Amino acid sequence: MNLNQLDLNLLIILKQLLNEKHISNTALTLGMSQPSISRSLSKLRSLFDDPLLIRMAGGYELTPKAQSIQQDLNSILNMVETLVNKQTFDAKTSQATIKLFGLPPQMHLLIETIIKDVREQAPNITLEIDTLPKPQFSDLLKGETHFVITGHKPTSSEDKLYRQALFERDFKLIMASTHPLANIKLNIELLRNCNFGQISIQGEKSLSIAHCFAALGIDNINTPIRLKNFYSIGTIAQNTDLIFFVPDHFANDICRHHDVVARVVPPELNLEHDEVYLYWHQRHHNDPVCQWFRELVKSKVFKI
Q: Which Pfam families did the record assign (predicted)?
């Protein structure tokens, strides 16, 4: 391939094409016309001497070469962005985008705490916030997000990650104010025959505290509802006999908007991951935009 024929815009289009696997969606995302994307794809196919995207019955699929390119492309574009930012970064004038991922309870608290400072210090910076359920560290490792806010811990293979403590958290049990246990001090014996709502963000098949019950010889906890997000917890708890195990700051918010109560969790059900961290990848460690964001977050006091 002749590098003189390659411009940065083509790589940006290629990144979106490989992510979307769809010409029309890529055009919509980038604010371009479909014919322009088609022409760019034709140029890219010629440059890489490969079809890159192959039309199949259900849409387009990536060729093996496209899959290989995709693994490196995010890192290359991030390096280019970092190179530019090193020369020009000024919080007051920067138009950078900072991509954040976290589940709603943690993300809500972080944004609530920092958003005023972000807007005052960097009015032109965009925070791109993702709270859709997915594996916690996948986008961070692929270079598709700058920061992850989570109480989960990465595996030993994810050793190129840095972290910064944000806040400690406890958990509460949420139930309807009319629930038989709403006004009783909770213990394991009272809870063992209750119905629980499960929050299955990554496709988990068991309740997050099931292993705590199992350690006590209780392995038949009933979970008749499994949610992929946090948004319906209050409504479901308010109108059923289901109990939900949620972070306490999120529990307090649910109690303000629904006819539910938040009860103290018996100590046998406390989880180990009770501290939430801000994680970032080695590739962004020296990025001045990300350094500025980390310092801003560090300057705030998180304690729940």
A: HTH_1, LysR_substrate
- Give burial (CB, 10 Å; 0-12/13-18/19+) of 43: middle
Q: Which residue has the higher pLDDT, 135 or 95?
A: 95
Q: Which residues contact 149 (CB under 8 A, 6 or more apart)?
A: 100, 101, 102, 106, 107, 110, 166, 276, 277, 278, 279
Choice among 80-84, 165-169, 206-210 with the minimum mean pLDDT: 80-84
pLDDT tens digits, 136-160: 888 888 888 999 998 888 876 566 8
Q: How far apart are CA 273 and CA 291, in angstroms?
A: 26
Distance in angstroms (rounded) separating the CA atoms of residues 222 and 129: 34
Q: Where are the alpha helices (DSSP H) in 7-95?
A: 8-20, 23-30, 34-48, 64-88
- As given in the structure block, the two tokens for residue 81 are 């962005």
Quick: pLDDT tens for 246-296: 888 888 889 999 999 999 999 888 776 578 899 999 888 888 899 999 999
Instruction: Assess contact for 76 and 11: CB atoms under 8 A.
Output: yes
Beta carbons within 10 angstroms of residue 243's beta carbon: 20
Which DSSP category does 266 fall into?
P
Predicted confidence at residue 201, as pLDDT, reads 72
Containing H/E element for 173? strand 171-176
Which residue from 280, 267, 301 is spatially nearest to 167, judged by alpha carbons?
301
DSSP designation for 44? H
